[in-house]
Amino acid sequence: MCQQPNRLGGFTLIELLVVLVILGSLIGLAVLSVGIAGPGRELHNEAERLAGLIGVLAEEAVLDNQEYGLLLARESYQVLRYDPIKQTWQALGSKAHALPAWAELSVELEGAALALPTSAGDAPAKVGLLPQLLLLSSGEISPFRLRLAERRSNGLRLQLVSDGFRLPVVEVLQPAERNQ
Question: Which of 12, 45, 79, 144 is 20–30 Å from 173 (CA)?
Answer without folding.
Answer: 79
